[in-house]
Amino acid sequence: MWLVRPALPGDVNQILAIAGTVDSETARLSSTLPRQREALAEKIQHSQASLAGTASSDSQPPRILFVLEDTATGRIHGTAGVDARAGNGQPFYNYRRDALIHASHELGISSRVDVLYPSHGLTDHTLLCSFSITPELRNTDAFELLSRARILFIAGHRDWFTHRVAVEIQGVQLADGSVPFWDSLGRHFFNMDFDTADQHSGLLSKTFIAELMPPNPVYVTLLSESAQAALGQPHELTVPNLELLQREGFQAGCYLDIFDGGPVLEARTDALHTLVISQPKALHGAIESEVESVVEDGGDLCLIAAGEGAGFRCTLAKAAGTLEGTLKVPVKVWEVLEKTAGDQVRVAPC
Amino acid sequence: MWLVRPALPGDVNQILAIAGTVDSETARLSSTLPRQREALAEKIQHSQASLAGTASSDSQPPRILFVLEDTATGRIHGTAGVDARAGNGQPFYNYRRDALIHASHELGISSRVDVLYPSHGLTDHTLLCSFSITPELRNTDAFELLSRARILFIAGHRDWFTHRVAVEIQGVQLADGSVPFWDSLGRHFFNMDFDTADQHSGLLSKTFIAELMPPNPVYVTLLSESAQAALGQPHELTVPNLELLQREGFQAGCYLDIFDGGPVLEARTDALHTLVISQPKALHGAIESEVESVVEDGGDLCLIAAGEGAGFRCTLAKAAGTLEGTLKVPVKVWEVLEKTAGDQVRVAPC
Amino acid sequence: MLVIRPLKETDLEDLYAMAQKAGKGLTTLPADRDLLQRKIAHAQQTFNQRCAPEAGLYLFALEDTETGKAVGISGIQARVGLDEVFYNYRLSVTVNASKELGVHVRTPTLHLSNDMTDTSEICSLLLSDDYHGGGNGLLLSRCRFMYLDEFRKHFSEKVFAEMRGVSDEQGRSPLWDALGSKFFDMEFTQADVLSGLGNKSFIAELMPKYPIYLPMLPDSARAVIGRVHGNTAPALKMLQAEGFNFNGMVDIFDGGPVVEAFVNTIRTVRDSVNRHAMIAKKPINLNVPASERVMVSNRSFRNFRVTTVPASCISTDTVSLPPAVAEALQIESGDPVRLAPLKEKPKAAVHALG
Amino acid sequence: MLVIRPLKETDLEDLYAMAQKAGKGLTTLPADRDLLQRKIAHAQQTFNQRCAPEAGLYLFALEDTETGKAVGISGIQARVGLDEVFYNYRLSVTVNASKELGVHVRTPTLHLSNDMTDTSEICSLLLSDDYHGGGNGLLLSRCRFMYLDEFRKHFSEKVFAEMRGVSDEQGRSPLWDALGSKFFDMEFTQADVLSGLGNKSFIAELMPKYPIYLPMLPDSARAVIGRVHGNTAPALKMLQAEGFNFNGMVDIFDGGPVVEAFVNTIRTVRDSVNRHAMIAKKPINLNVPASERVMVSNRSFRNFRVTTVPASCISTDTVSLPPAVAEALQIESGDPVRLAPLKEKPKAAVHALG
């Protein structure tokens, strides 16, 4: 079975291996998943402290990292994270795209001038981040489980999170590894290649962005043509993820990633599809074989989450309702969720 | 009965008189309603051309001015307008308020810095404007009729308008006539008093704004305290109008008036309450007396609009539905709407 | 004899002919009769002190006294940016550095600036082709420095000149193509002409207001910022010899540099001396090379006249002038005159310090 | 005798005492032993050419040879803004005008600027109270211009000085209160000290990046922009006499002006002459007023020494120096020396032109 659970210190090696796998094929899927052992260990440690409720201060709001585990093998196949407050107590940088109209009444000229404004407008929004998955699982149910389990976590810990949620989608990177938006803008100011900047941006201190980012707005018309074309466009490999997020209710607004110009999706937390359709249910206590057959025959595939904080578990299984309003699931699901008959779970149709 | 209809050239004197009345008590209710005879006559002329479909070009999109008439006396008691495209083919100026986070990781300092960016973001949105009403009618049904009739006009001429609609609400003006936001910002650059600037802004050419407005963003913290307090706040006399618009579905966003710092409300055109709940109906053909009594006894007070372009009429009356889906109204309503049995009207509950 | 004198109404046709020949390069003097006529009238009002001093436009003609024709023109605008907004780009540097990452980047940046407002500009220099050489261009240009010095209170302490920027034979400007054209939906020459005609509100309306980071422009555009058109190189060299320096401002359209100098440090001003005129009885050979001639002015505000005479005419307190020269300058014996070198003195002498 | 020489390790305590007395005004020399020790070490490396020329920090001590104590200090930073980003505000003008409405408004505006980057700065002047007067301050300041001139290739063509801005007796700055404090959540003195300590990344993080329109600031703040603190007025006057001018830049915290000059136009540089030293056998009365003394330097890069001698010691090719002076300068008969006036020459002579 597929299980999403909080990352543990012992997961470091396997996560690094995934980062490696992903790396080789797609250049990267998430700049917020560190590729350095030490930074990753620290991130997991902070996630554990967040889950234990010992790390929540204004300067260090909760940041949680989940992993996708195959319970049969114990192997980890993906990661997904959620930061309670984008920027984590520091400014969260984006470009906000806006238009000015340059018009001359006398000359009868009017043209739309697009401007990229440095913005911290998404600071303190809840942020989905650190998503990575092994290539063979793309477009499977496990992919959907990994992404949506975070929403069920939010649903179960609503007061940890703010009322707006955002997610950055990787922008256009060409086959040769070049990033047109970066090459036309950021490179001139940061004086480093895209990957280096991208890795730095995963670190806690964003001082280097304040120091190196051009302080004034930028005219889109002065970007290279390929950079203009890349503005707000997702990397083709992120399209399945993008579509999944759109089904979740996320929409692209006026914000763009400052490094690659990729789109930033936004949604109201309380309007997230999975959150809206999810329901708390008690587990039905029944004889094992009976439940199995009922569920296998007539049940619907559901995301089922249970547990609080470090005990959070989320899996994917067929489930069926009962007349009393309880939820019938195969007993192996009980085991994976570490719950038993009568315990509360949260369920959302797949 | 109260009737809203397109303004006619002969209305100029009465409209000027209202502008005068309103003026004496509330300083102003609309900067887009000219106080000069010539400018007003031109506005009415353009409205007529718009309604006739002879004025709709990209550089001169439709701008329509309605009046509120007491059919008993023929007197005009108010005006309301709608511009199909804010800016009317030229830039529409606002400030967009946004926050930057100025934070130093090393010093552990983080503060929110509000910035006003010159913006044309609302250009080409449909704009409700030129609202004025004689003081004794404030908070009456006639007030509501005058404001909402425009929405019924939009509903009946949907393709003349865009998918977003905005309305500027007058900002704070003190008892002594001073405008704190203007005195702290605009005055330094425009070198004129608020009323003069406000009147200029009602004119077609916005060249003077491009010429005189400070070209760079402005830090809110450098405004006077009273100007900061006035940001996004409505003039107290506009509160009834503001509340009516909020019921209509309008919400304040991040845009502010460049002169007085008043709020700009925004809505999706297709989500406007009056538009959503309005229905096309045929007028029920019935014996006069019968209808009168049915309607007077059991009918609901409704906005009823009919007619296209220059023939648009909107009034307020009790009406009742029939089993066949037609609408029973008093026959005097037929007269006011210049319609008869079987004719199509558009009705919205009050 | 060639004499500098105030431009007058009867010069219109000569001026128009020169403007036509000059073509697109000279935007302050477009070949437009009405406009030129207005300029002449403005200059006349200025010399006759019938306009506010700060609105003054001082236009001088170089007249060939044999034909009575104007064969050159040059001017001083008392103050720029009073009627219209005067725009330049200031070439500045933005530094971004991170100690932590060891990154230090300097980004040349263009900032829209009105900082030349209220400064005097030397402008509108034009010399008929037939009269090139022989120091005529120098006379036409430098006579203005004598005037600036004589009547300092009418001008700012600092004066500047806008130099024509780089464009190709078709009049295409690389900076315009890379920058201006993205914001102004027109050709460079059209923008230049509009700007020259004096209605600059379209600049306020269409111009980008935020700074332009140069690395975002193509090499061809960056290369011409602060550089002058080939035809203007000699004029730049002359002004540099006078003590004018690039002040970091460039033209918003073609990137041509602005050069400036304090009036009191301009070489012509520093090297000028006052003498009294003495009408010579003996004949004087006026026909000496430019390098041996000096400028002599009549020091008149309303009827400023300058011509050149051999340096050998100068003595301790006086300068000997042939009757024809005195007549051209409209002076008599005993009148004060001002003298200044037409060409630079040898450089060696100047740098012989320390 | 008072002699200028490179600052050295043993000056630490004297320097610390002076820095303590100077208090908050002098941010480049805070009373912090570690920092001062690092500065001394940096200066020593500079004089010994053990650091890159552009990273050089030239610090000179004024030593009282009788006590061996350092009683003053002054310095030159070879280039600013290389390690750290160097910020100023540029005081500029924004013009908005509408011909149609007859409105023309000039708005003084502060633009954040890094334009002094890569320029040499004269800095860190401090003189012990007991030694004020007698031209000691002039010696301490002007010796730097002799050094700049001698070793021009180590410095930029233009040099500048930041002048302390206006603050009250409690150290409160009106500009800071109206502007900086709104963005930096700290006191002026704290910001000033942080900036002096050399870590300026907090400025990049907290500083407002968009231009500041001055009419939005209170009168008290506008009044101090480009003005110097009362205590600094004499220093400003001295620099102006040397040919330094306000260049339109002001300090981002207190609004104090930046003054600048081209090295080759600095009066001390222009008025300096080279001679050969001749050890005098006859006694020379060194005790003459400052106005009759001249500076004499040994022209050494690594061991630059300057003191003053009576102007009467100078003859056509040589200068007569008493043995004690020669010893203080560490020179022998026949060695080249450089001379420059300690005080200005009478002004009348200079302006006797035209």
UniProtKB/TrEMBL annotation, chains A, B:
UniProt keyword Transferase present: yes
- The keyword Transferase is assigned to this record: yes
Q: Which UniProt keywords apply?
A: Acyltransferase, Arginine metabolism, Transferase
Q: Which Pfam families match?
A: AstA
Check the record and name the PANTHER family matching this protein.
Answer: ARGININE N-SUCCINYLTRANSFERASE (PTHR30420:SF1), N-SUCCINYLARGININE DIHYDROLASE (PTHR30420)
Q: What is this protein called?
A: Arginine N-succinyltransferase
Originating organism: Marinobacter salexigens
Automatic annotation (TrEMBL), chains C, D:
**Under which EC number(s) is this enzyme classified?**
2.3.1.109
The record's top EC class is transferase
UniProt-recorded Gene Ontology molecular function terms: arginine N-succinyltransferase activity
Among its keywords, does the record have Coiled coil?
A: no
User: Is Zinc-finger there in the keyword field?
Assistant: no
| Keywords (A to Z) from UniProt | Acyltransferase, Arginine metabolism, Transferase
One Pfam assignment: AstA
Under which name does UniProt file this protein? Arginine N-succinyltransferase
Lineage of origin: Bacteria, Pseudomonadati, Pseudomonadota, Gammaproteobacteria, Pseudomonadales
Gene behind this protein: astA
